[in-house]
Amino acid sequence: MQNFLERATPGALALYRIAIGLIFFFYGSSRFFDWPVAGEFEAPELFAFPTWWAAAIQIVGGGLVILGLFTRTAAFLSSGSMAVAYFWMHQPEGLTLLNNGGVASALLCWALFILVFVGPGALSVDGLLRKKK
User: How far apart are CA 79 and CA 102, in angstroms?
Assistant: First the structure.
């Protein structure tokens, strides 16, 4: 069983990376394009701070994480943006996650932060570029 788990780790990390990247990407695309969920967020004005920039980070960072391109850097910056979102927007509303609406921000922050340390796993552009060297 241990051997199976060790062999499956790169693939499991890839699935984890892709799932987290998609969730993060969809938050941004819902703001900009009303897709995949329409009406969830109000579309930000061009370059409006912080909503436009947050959505841009979510789309670019999420896309890079999905592809596994510059994974550790994209995950670090994306994780940081979620930490800022939590402490700036949610934490002042209440001390705990359950009463301040910051569960998604906190979960995405930590989920992305883990990728900084474990890397992209299998099926990543980073892996393909590493093989070419």
Answer: 14
From 116, 13, 34, 36, select the one nearest 73 (Cα to Cα).
116
pLDDT in tens, 83-100: 999 999 999 999 898 899
The token duo for 85 is: 């979102």
Q: Domains of the chain: which residue ranges?
A: 2-132
Q: Could you give the 3-state DSSP secondary structure of residue 54?
A: helix
CA gap 5, 114 in Å, rounded: 19
Q: Let me know how long the chain is.
A: 133
Tell which residue, 51, 119, 70, 47, has the closest CA to residue 62. Answer: 70
- pTM, two decimal places: 0.91
Structure tokens at 98: 């359950």
